């Protein structure tokens, strides 16, 4: 069945929200950064770098042009009465810190307790990607994923855990490699029921088996 999506907050910089700078202007800005760093943007190895950086940024931040709520719009009710946890664990996370525009790399675990209907599992992964492909802080990312799933699917509960290393901390500043940050967001039954929460946390911390 198709579920109407209402009341969801649109992406903060969705198409048409503000004028995008011209590609030539962005390439010129990258060229200026190269000069500021102390190198020659006209030398052979750098002459095409501004264009490459712009293409990379289009890929890194394509989430601004996706409404995550719409990704969850198509659901299914034929579950043969299944009502236990549905979980995706160890999803690769690649996003960028909004303070320094450097990578945050880690993994995301998502679970929900269905309330009569379910969604294709690839859609959950796409929701994660839609928010990850934006400038982020990990706390906001964790909440955005959980709250979107809760509002659109209206399940009995949602759980999201993000574990990630921040390059702004490991490669600059305090320089503490090997440190990961963990954020969690529990809604509905996962927030109210400690046993259910422990079951979820045990599932994402247990041994992994490779299939296929």
In words, what does this structure look like?
With 212 residues, this protein is an alpha+beta fold. The protein folds into 2 domains: 8-60, GTP cyclohydrolase I, N-terminal domain (GTP Cyclohydrolase I, Chain A, domain 1); 78-205, 2-Layer Sandwich (GTP Cyclohydrolase I, domain 2), CATH 3.30.1130. The protein is 37% helix and 22% strand. The protein has 8 helices and 7 strands. The protein has helices at residues 23-37, 49-60, 68-71, 121-132, 138-153, 167-170, 189-192, 194-205, and strands at 75-76, 86-97, 103-113, 118-119, 135-136, 157-166, 181-188. It has a 5-stranded mixed beta sheet with strand order 5-2-3-6-7, with helices on both faces. The model is unreliable at 1-11 (pLDDT under 50).
Please state the overall shape, judged from the principal axes of the Cα atoms. elongated
User: What is the CATH architecture term of the largest domain?
Assistant: 2-Layer Sandwich
What is the topology, as strand order, of the major beta sheet? 5-2-3-6-7
Give the strand tally: 7
Q: In CATH terms, what is the fold-level topology of the largest domain?
A: GTP Cyclohydrolase I, domain 2
Computed over alpha carbons, the radius of gyration is 20 Å
The CATH first-level class of the largest domain comes to Alpha Beta
Content of β-strand: 15-25%
Question: SSE order in H/E notation?
Answer: HHHEEEEHEHEHEHH
The low-confidence parts are 1-11
CATH superfamily of the largest domain: GTP cyclohydrolase I, C-terminal domain/NADPH-dependent 7-cyano-7-deazaguanine reductase, N-terminal domain
Q: Terminal Cα separation, in Å?
A: 31 Å
The tally of helices reads 8
Can you tell me the number of structural domains? 2
Mean pLDDT: 90
The biggest sheet, with number of strands, parallel, antiparallel or mixed sense and barrel status, is: 5 strands, mixed
Helix fraction, binned, reads 25-40%
Secondary structure class reads alpha+beta
